[in-house]
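Two proteins were folded this term; both appear here.
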Amino acid sequence: MKVQNHSAVTKAVDLAAKSWFVVAVIGQMIFACYVLMLYWKSAALGDFERWNSATGHFYIKGDLLGNTIFGLHVALAAIITILGPMQLVPKVRSYAPRFHRASGRIYIASAFIISLAGLYLSWIKGSVGGLEGSVVITMNAVIIMICAFFAVKNAIRRNIASHNQWAVHLFLAMSGVWLFRVFLMLWIMAWRAPVGFDPETFTGPFLNFLGFMVYVFPQAIVAFYFLAKKSQVSATKWAFSGLVFLITIGTALGIVAATIGLWVPRM
């Protein structure tokens, strides 16, 4: 079925995407505050042991290399969380192109560094979730680096449309760790218990499924978004809009659960 009311259905697609983006930015700013207050503040005070209140075992006294890599990893987490949304705001690109290019370079460099640091922490220091956790984190790191590579490649070639599309892919890939926490807390809030995984070992079928859903599924949603924007079929546009509105509701609830149950208590 062709689009009958092109204006209305197109607005629905844009509204769905913008609604999720606004909710995500609010949630990510809360997460950035959490990272700054837990990791940056404790580092400034010399209280490095406090890092393990959230990560379990990544700070080890005397492990200069491992602690440095972990410190860099969490330092960049706050930076990319703040810079990421700015890369996708059209007015920033239009009115502050130099800032967009400079912050974009920092964002891309951070994408590669944080991915490599994550691989080191997972395979050398050991992932909290064991082998399965390391595999899931590796999958996320590979996706991030692929998206970053193509975003840079298309920017250099001045293929702006493809660059913008890969930038959205990269933003969702870089948001994977944040999404994991949001939907984990939504799951726990819904069941009022850690169903489907062992909270002590942080392993279980649900965590493997969640890793796939927050690292791979968002890439499909981005592809669906650009397909829906170009499509002349109303059903495609309405399907995307309805799906993303549902995801937005889940994201908002997960942010509330993560803020109350995870982030604020550790700030």
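Next, the second protein.
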Amino acid sequence: MGGVTVDGVVFDLDGVIVDSEPVWEEVRRAYVAEHGGGWQDDTQRRLMGMSTGEWARYLSDELGVRRTADQVAAEVVEEMARRYAARVPVIDGAVDVVRRLAAQWPLGLASSSPTRLIAAALAATDLTDAFRTTLSTEETERGKPAPDVYLSVARQLGLDPTRCVAVEDSSNGVRSAAAAGMAVVAVPHGAYPLDPDARRLAVTVLDSIDELTPEVVDGLG
């Protein structure tokens, strides 16, 4: 950002605050198998960042699931909600990091999760009040890697996206935030490493979320 003041921070949810990517993979894999589809080696990587409508169509059209996209979305999200009701898998240190940053900057949340799962995750982590605005790609035209959700969150915060820092874990998420003009902090999940182009787009890459201090954010300005 080259000397620009940081005016706000926008977090992704899945893989940054909640360790939900493995749960999504487990639920969708089982669903595909149950309904006659075929899971591919690159399926999980492709799905990360897609909006609900996009991944539901992908399972129905590309993987051969014998259900309509609307049925896929409703049934998979219902199972995820059931899992979340039992336990939301919070990433160690993430809640404290969000709270520390919320004390200094307005925060937004730009998530590929459906709105009802965002609400469930934030309620379970007691972070609902930490975010000025939250947005699901359900409500944008395109999911990640398109910049739509990050641009919309910046607009809702009343901030210039080029003066915002984004916190992402996935390649498509990094691409999305970078395309919106944000400085991206990447915290990749051990099981889903960043693609080389996404790693190059990130301003900094951290090993874990608890390395994201206010000083690190300030240093990105």
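The chain has a mean pLDDT of 95. The first strand starts at residue 8 and ends at 11. These notes refer to the second protein only.
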